[in-house]
Amino acid sequence: MADLYASEEAQQILQIAIAKETESGELTRLQLSEIAAELNIAPETLWSAEKEWLALKSDSAQQLIFNQQRRQNFQHHLIRYGVVNSFLLLLNISVSGGIGFAAFFILTWGIGLALHGLRAYQSSGYRYQKDFKSWQRRQQVKQSVIGIFERFMNT
After folding, report:
1. How far apart are CA 88 and CA 74, in angstroms?
2. Digit-coded pLDDT (tens) for 111-148
3. Distance CA 144, CA 7 (A)
4. Rounded to an integer, what distance in angstroms lies between the CA atom of residue 46 and that of residue 9?
5. Quick one: angle between helices 29-38 and 43-96, nearest 10?
6. I want to staple 120 with a disulfide (CB 3.0 to 4.6 A). Which of 1, 53, 62, 70 is the partner?
7. 120, 85, 115, 81: which is closest to 99 by C-alpha?
């Protein structure tokens, strides 16, 4: 067995040991603080880490909702594309016997739709983070407006 462990290795070992010690796999806040005390972790550091973990957990949940909404918007766009272009194609075939001008709409809209699809299913990178932060701000504004409206209605 090694005498030295990297921080990540020590974390993994402790995580397994804690899971084995607790029957339900869950710890109370008191148990967590006792473990931290045994590891010479200051209570302030533990509570700071807990706040950071809660923020990360909230961000992760919001990203799931954001991703679902982006993909749902893309799927709606895809359905509209199929319906409108099918109609245009059938109209063009019945009038002129060929695809004619419908091909222009199918191709140009199709390029835009493909780009929309790439963005909808991208979940990392600068553009994704920018879109996510913008979505978060819109959600916060929406919640503020709803809160003001509810207070106004309850008065």
Report:
1. 21
2. 999 999 999 999 899 999 999 999 999 999 999 998 88
3. 42
4. 19
5. 120
6. 70
7. 85
